[in-house]
């Protein structure tokens, strides 16, 4: 049993009231964290107001050294981090090891980008009457950043918010997911061990509805970075008011397979994209569109590969897919499957559950009016559809109110280039699934998939402001 404290105002603090953290695979309680309150958040805000001044005063070299050391500490403890991710979350041990390694890379990228954060000279004499002026702009930190993170990547998505914030000279107040707070607290420990001044970071555990209102409402907080659902994102936007927001709000990603595609590669990518992390991934393949001439062949290959996936013990290296995060979410997934079936959908594989484990599921003939077709399911469920030509495929891919990333399988460069321009998404992945990301790339979507972009460099642009400097030179 891990009994963890939260970090507020430079100190580790416990509370008499706690939140139990369970292993979604075994449903056993593995630890507790303090149940934070609005009062705790107010204390964090006071601390962060001191911390933002300390953070802004850190030299570029100091920021780089802290982040580099933190990356090294994560590297030195990769297996411990992976075991923690796999225990409190939904990932298998192999998926967790990948996330732990990416976390170190995200921190390392943040250190490198700190070196690159700079401005530009400005040619003021481009405007008439300003030949006696010269100047430049530089970027300065916004101050305090509120970071709210999800359960599905409990370590790396924390690093994606904290790393760029620290690299650009900001203080951070972190609210990790209630289901997976242990990884965030572990990373907080490593940052402090790396030399981060304690006033710069506050990590508060607790219910979001109780803890976050003061964070969102405070005029001292100049940016909110959030990863989560659309409904929560809309509430945050309304409450936050006139402050910067960066939100990644999920998706319902399309996967297009044209008739010239390599079907073995396409089927393998589709299965991996649909069922990796138990489908609890914003980039998960949910809608598969296949040219009608190759439907049968593709479907047979997909089902064969999907049925080979093993579910069960997350710590077993042979396990391919872990559980759904909670009983409530498991029930929601199964309800959506049953509702689709009642409206005419056919289950081609899966469609069953045991405890919190939902079998890899593929359905056909899913009506466009169903939740399963229109919304993000966030589970190991995909639907199969056919198209006759390019225009029909693109139109179908674009018709839902999400647009994070899309996967396109084709060997025709003409089709690939057209799709890059015609798909209404934040990223088009050619000959791979929508579930592709490297930590340096701009990451985000359009429509209900969010506002702004993550990725270390892009995030740092949002976490800083340009300040223009103009000198008017008089003759001596």
From TrEMBL:
<dbReference type="GO" id="GO:0008911">
    <property type="term" value="F:lactaldehyde dehydrogenase (NAD+) activity"/>
</dbReference>
<keyword id="KW-0560">Oxidoreductase</keyword>
<dbReference type="Pfam" id="PF00171">
    <property type="entry name" value="Aldedh"/>
</dbReference>
<dbReference type="InterPro" id="IPR016163">
    <property type="entry name" value="Ald_DH_C"/>
</dbReference>
<dbReference type="InterPro" id="IPR051020">
    <property type="entry name" value="ALDH-related_metabolic_enz"/>
</dbReference>
<dbReference type="InterPro" id="IPR016162">
    <property type="entry name" value="Ald_DH_N"/>
</dbReference>
<comment type="function">
    <text>Part of the sulfo-TAL (or sulfo-SFT) pathway, a D-sulfoquinovose degradation pathway that produces sulfolactate (SL). Catalyzes the oxidation of 3-sulfolactaldehyde (SLA) to sulfolactate (SL).</text>
</comment>
<feature type="domain" description="Aldehyde dehydrogenase">
    <location>
        <begin position="15"/>
        <end position="469"/>
    </location>
</feature>
<dbReference type="InterPro" id="IPR015590">
    <property type="entry name" value="Aldehyde_DH_dom"/>
</dbReference>
<comment type="similarity">
    <text>Belongs to the aldehyde dehydrogenase family.</text>
</comment>
<dbReference type="InterPro" id="IPR016161">
    <property type="entry name" value="Ald_DH/histidinol_DH"/>
</dbReference>
<protein>
    <recommendedName>
        <fullName>3-sulfolactaldehyde dehydrogenase</fullName>
        <ecNumber>1.2.1.97</ecNumber>
    </recommendedName>
</protein>
């Amino acid at each position: 049993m891990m009994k963890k404290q939260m970090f507020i105002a430079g100190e580790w603090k416990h509370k008499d009231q706690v939140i139990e953290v369970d292993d979604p695979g075994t449903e056993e309680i593995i630890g507790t964290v303090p149940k934070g309150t609005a009062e705790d958040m107010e204390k964090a805000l006071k601390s962060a107001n001191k911390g933002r001044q300390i953070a802004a005063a850190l030299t570029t070299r100091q920021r780089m050294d802290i982040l580099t050391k933190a990356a090294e500490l994560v590297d030195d403890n990769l297996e411990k981090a992976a075991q923690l991710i796999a225990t409190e979350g939904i990932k298998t041990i192999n998926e967790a090891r990948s996330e732990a390694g990416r976390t170190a890379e995200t921190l390392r990228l943040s250190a490198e980008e700190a070196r690159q954060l700079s401005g530009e000279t400005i040619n003021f004499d481009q405007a008439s009457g300003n030949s006696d002026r010269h100047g430049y702009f530089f970027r300065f930190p916004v101050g305090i950043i509120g970071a709210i993170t999800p359960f599905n990547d409990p370590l790396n998505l924390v690093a994606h918010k904290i790393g760029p914030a620290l690299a650009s000279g900001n203080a951070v107040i972190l609210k990790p997911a209630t289901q997976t707070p242990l990884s965030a607290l572990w990373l907080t420990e490593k940052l402090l061990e790396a030399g981060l001044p304690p006033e710069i970071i506050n990590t508060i555990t607790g219910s979001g509805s109780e803890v976050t209102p003061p964070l969102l409402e405070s005029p001292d907080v100049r940016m909110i970075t959030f990863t989560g659902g659309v409904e929560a994102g809309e509430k945050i936007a309304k409450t936050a008011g006139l402050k910067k927001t960066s939100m990644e709000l999920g998706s319902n990603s399309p996967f297009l397979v044209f008739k010239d595609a390599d079907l073995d590669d396409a089927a393998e990518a589709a299965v991996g994209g649909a069922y990796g992390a138990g489908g609890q991934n914003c980039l998960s393949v949910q809608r598969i569109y296949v040219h009608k001439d190759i439907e049968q062949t593709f479907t047979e290959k997909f089902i064969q590969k999907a049925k080979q996936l093993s579910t069960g013990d997350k710590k077993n290296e042979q396990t391919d897919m872990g559980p759904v995060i909670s009983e409530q979410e498991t029930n929601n997934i199964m309800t959506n499957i049953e509702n689709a079936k009642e409206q005419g959908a056919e289950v081609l594989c899966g469609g069953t559950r045991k405890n919190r484990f939902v079998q890899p599921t593929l359905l056909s003939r899913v009506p466009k009016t169903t939740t399963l077709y229109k919304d993000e399911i966030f589970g190991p469920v995909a639907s199969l559809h056919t198209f006759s030509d390019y225009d029909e495929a693109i139109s179908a891919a674009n018709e839902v109110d999400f647009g994070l990333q899309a996967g396109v399988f084709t060997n025709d460069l003409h089709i690939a280039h057209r799709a890059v321009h015609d798909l209404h998404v934040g990223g088009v992945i050619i000959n791979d699934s929508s579930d592709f990301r490297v930590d340096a790339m701009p990451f985000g979507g359009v429509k209900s998939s969010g506002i702004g972009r993550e990725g270390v460099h892009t995030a740092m642009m949002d976490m800083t402001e340009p300040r223009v400097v103009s000198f008017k030179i008089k003759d001596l």
